[in-house]
Design a protein that fits this description.
This protein has 310 residues and is α/β, with parallel strands linked by helices. It has 16 helices and 9 strands. A hairpin with a 3-residue loop joins strand 6 and strand 7.
Amino acid sequence: MTTDIDESIATMYSSVDDLATILEQEKYIADRSLATTLYLTLKLGKPLLLEGEAGVGKTEIAKVLSSALDTPLIRLQCYEGLDAANAIYEWDYPRQMLYLRTIDATGAIDQTQVRRDLFSEEFLLKRPLLQAIDAAHVKSPVLLIDEIDRADQELEAFLLELLSDFQVTVPELGTIRAEHRPIVILTSNRTREIHDALKRRCLYFWVDFPSFEKELKILTTKVPDLPASLAQQIVQFTQALREVDLFKLPGMAETLDWSEALQALGTNELNDAVVQDTLGVILKYQEDIERIQGDVAARLVQRARQAGAE
């Protein structure tokens, strides 16, 4: 039994540049610093905590890493009130009751055997954290613990133990240990601070809004059929939006959604009318839409078109 990331994954990439190239082949454009952090995550076998604004691509990193490594992605979506039963395991009570009724109907009741069968793996519902350390994996899966800042601190306390030993004790079955330590990616939108004890167990990276050059490269990679001039105008517009005092700044996800919406409308270049009609694609709060629509949007459109023409 081992609790390390298996060697086939840890040695798959010989350098940071090699990993960055593979990520780009998966259509994820990673800065050198991010590629380095991901490389160290694989080499050192440590969890990685990604923080940043919503929509900047944190969750996508785990998805792309899973695809690049050809290993399963197991996702735990955190929310307020998430408890251990939903995160780790619970017993399938309806099936257990059906089993008991079947046994009772047949009249063949061996209480010791029934008790043993009733709390066997057949009736165990494995939730994401238990799935991640399942011995059935032939190599390390990617465990994505998404939006950990939304979960209660009690879950953080449990994660401290899990990320240290990668084992879970089920009273009826005993201790379940990982044969292959999962590659753990935690994300946070920083709606609250993560406990220092959990942070100390992780490598850390802040995922920022992309620069103009990076955003344009991501856009043309993800939406290759988009006209080059329109792609530049879209990025100029979204970059300018992030300079405005908005409740929620648009991330890369909104840029991609907007470009696909404009493409679906047959738009070849930005104009006041189409921007006004599609602000709800890129902005998600009515207060932000009201702040931008009208003269502000018109100025940003003009600025984007002038910059694209240069």
